[in-house]
Amino acid sequence: MQDLVSAAHTAIQRVYREPFHTVGAAARTSAGGIFTGVNLDCSGFGPCAESIALGAAITAGQPDIVQIVAVRPDGIILSPCGNCRQLLVDLAPNALVLMPSSEGIVSIPIAQLLPDPYRGGWNEQAPS
Fold first, then answer.
1. Count H helices, E strands: the chain?
2. CA geometry: angle at 97 spanning 95 and 49, to 5°?
């Protein structure tokens, strides 16, 4: 767990530039790869660090994400936003998310963070 947090922290520390890059993320794949990313905030909009890290893993041919974390430049671990939760449910449905809780840092399955995800469009599934 700590190596993943360190990788995310290193990513944002390397390029931190307010307001453009304020969050770093790291994703671990089932093959053991660790892929990092930083958010790209331009004119108040841009992809989150988690989506950049996920894209890096997919581009490298390692799409099976098993764990992901996002951190601020000061190393504080963040909970994923709603968009990232939906992205992870869609593209990394078995991922564990490292995030803060009242008990400290916990590892929670993405399905628990978004129990009733949007299922319209390309990933629509017929009700059973």
1. 4, 6
2. 95
**123: Cα separation from own chain's centroid:** 20
Residue 112, token pair as written in the block: 């628990």
Q: Which residues are catalytic?
A: 50
Q: Which CATH number fits domain 2-118: 1.10.3720.10, 1.10.40.50, 3.60.40.10, 3.40.140.10?
A: 3.40.140.10
31-78 tens-digit pLDDT: 999 999 999 888 767 899 999 999 999 999 999 999 999 999 999 999
Cβ-contact 28, 67 below 8 angstroms:
yes
Cβ 13 vs Cβ 19: under 8 Å? no
Which among 79, 94, 56, 72 is positioned nearest to 21, based on CA atoms?
72
Amino acid (1-letter code) at residue 109: P
- Return all residues near 127 (Cβ < 8 A) that are at least 6 apart: none
Residue 37 · residue 71 · CB < 8 Å: no
